[in-house]
Amino acid sequence: MGHLIIPDGYRPRLTSRELQRAVALIHEEFPSRLASCLNLREVRAPLFVDRASGLNESPGAAGPAVSFDIPDINVHAEMIHSLSKWARVALKRYEFKLGTGLYASVHTVRPDVRPDNMRSVYVDQWDWEKHIDPQNRDTQYLRDTVRDIVTCICDAAETLRKAFPALTFRPDRDVYFITAQELEDRFPHLSPAERETEICRVHRTVFLTCVGPDLHSGAPHAVRAPDCDDWSLNGTLFMWNPVLKQACELSTMGIRVDAEALRRQLTAADCENVRFLLFHQMLLNGDLPQSIGGGIGASRLCMLLLEACHIGEVQAGLWDAETVRACEEAEIPLL
After folding, report:
1. 320 lies in a domain?
2. pLDDT tens across 30-73, in order?
3. Is there a domain that residue 22 lies in?
4. Domain count, the chain
5. Is residue 80 in a domain?
6. What is the β-pairing status of strands 175-179 and 205-209?
7. Which burial class, exposed, middle or buried, applies to 159 when counting CB atoms under 10 A from its CB (0-12, 13-18, 19+)?
8. 110-164 pLDDT per residue, tens
9. Which of 14, 205, 213, 282 is in Cβ range 3.0-4.6 Å of 19 for a Cys bridge?
10. Is residue 5 part of a domain?
11. Residue 74: which region, alpha, beta or left (left: phi > 0; alpha: psi -120 to 50)?
């Protein structure tokens, strides 16, 4: 059994029928607001890609992908971990103009995930990608985009509270920005997860920047693929979860690597061998647009806004027998 937290006196805010309606409302409201705010258009997402294409997230960043052979077309396929690379190619293929972009609903599995209150083997998220001007490759553009996403979350939460008065959660619209190194300097004796919770305890909405490179301690705050985000222009969005009293990771995102950043980060990660894959060759040859993008956890967002204590309350998944028993005893309904 993963680490299970059952808060004292916890009871779901909504009935089972209300919860299904509320989840559906979030899935209608939030992506619509995101698309309008960031100038995105919905596209269909692949469930799997050819391993040889280099379009999946790099090894080490998200654990091994579920893979299988397709004999009739002589392809070894992998279930997508994230759409970050596929979406960047799609910006070019679908001819998205400067300042516009795409989003898609992603559904996949990550068998190596250790399930707990906020993690599941089943992953559902909204991945988005936007074509930007090279002049926008800076911290200010990243911060402005983060604030736009937080506004979408807060507005969706307001709509939910009006539809379901039993809900009380009000996410903080004010975003606190801090680098991974500054966070380590502030809490040098804590683990990365403990640092995230401590900073969110004070600053309820936090964007942790510069995630990926080794810190002064000799290890990165978190592993990030070297061929996706520019580590100097990326980050993770957290909000305080008042039910679990810990940080809730909602999104990883960033301005994507250009050719220079790709070379630098592949060297730092000691995985220069991938540069010969199709995606990397397109990027190094200048064939892909500059972009910003990320993923936003759908069930994680539903869990937070609906004040649920377990992700299994808002998504249908599989759980070990001990977790099921403990939740039944605590009258926590798992789907």
Report:
1. yes
2. 999 999 999 999 999 888 888 877 788 764 555 677 888 888 88
3. yes
4. 1
5. yes
6. parallel
7. middle
8. 888 888 999 999 999 999 999 999 999 999 999 999 999 999 999 999 999 999 9
9. 14
10. no
11. left
